[in-house]
Write a structure and sequence with these properties.
Layout lengths: L4 E4 L9 H4 L2 H16 L3 H12 L2 E2 L4 E2 L4 E2 L7 E3 L4 E2 L4 E2 L2 E3 L3 E4 L2 E3 L4 E2 L4 E2 L4 E2 L4 E2 L4 E2 L8 E4 L2 E5 L1 H10 L1
Parallel strand pairs: 2-5, 3-6, 4-7, 5-10, 6-11, 7-12, 10-13, 11-14, 12-15, 14-16
Antiparallel strand pairs: 1-9, 8-9, 16-17
Helix pairs in contact: 2-3
């Protein structure tokens, strides 16, 4: 189970009540900053925008590729370690609006993590240090440190120990 906090709603679906959960001006500011960052080719500028305006924790020498989409509503719940790569067009969600509730969950991406292009990361998951996530994966549960995962939903392809054994044979 993902680590999310649930907030029940009544009378209408939770998205209908979005601006009771997050201020409109915060969403607008976040949207503008994210759009600037999605298209800028300068990694240091991108990380500065995320740290300064979105209050995301972004480690040293972490690289967000073109078109990465951090959570627009709650980007401050995203934490990324040092020297990680977040691949092209990846979406990192820290919220989910459902019919009878909405959920918030911190997303933790460790250091030296490689996330392939077009991956979706759901709220409340942790991706351990040194993990590799295959392109076009859906991360709906925690990824162990050093593991190689992929698919929809993502499954462990190789554990850290299996990866080390394969590399030792070469």
């Amino acid at each position: 189970m993902r680590k999310t906090t649930r907030y029940p709603v009544k009378d209408a679906n939770s998205l209908w009540r979005i601006y009771r959960t997050v201020p409109f001006l915060k969403v607008m500011k976040n949207f503008i900053v994210i759009q600037l960052a999605r298209y800028t080719p300068f990694l240091q500028v991108k990380n500065w925008l995320y740290r300064t305006f979105l209050r995301m924790e972004v480690g040293k020498q972490t690289s967000f590729a073109l078109m990465v989409m951090p959570d627009t509503m709650f980007p401050e719940l995203i934490k990324v370690g040092d020297n990680s790569i977040i691949g092209y067009n990846t979406t990192i969600l820290a919220h989910e609006y459902l019919i009878e509730e909405y959920r918030l969950g911190e997303v933790r991406i460790g250091s030296n993590v490689l996330i392939g292009a077009n991956t979706t990361i759901l709220p409340g998951v942790t991706i351990g240090d040194g993990a590799i996530v295959s392109a076009a994966s859906l991360i709906n549960k925690d990824v162990p440190a050093g593991a190689f995962v992929g698919g929809n939903p993502a499954k462990v392809i190789y554990t850290k120990e299996e990866m080390e054994a394969r590399l030792a044979k070469k």
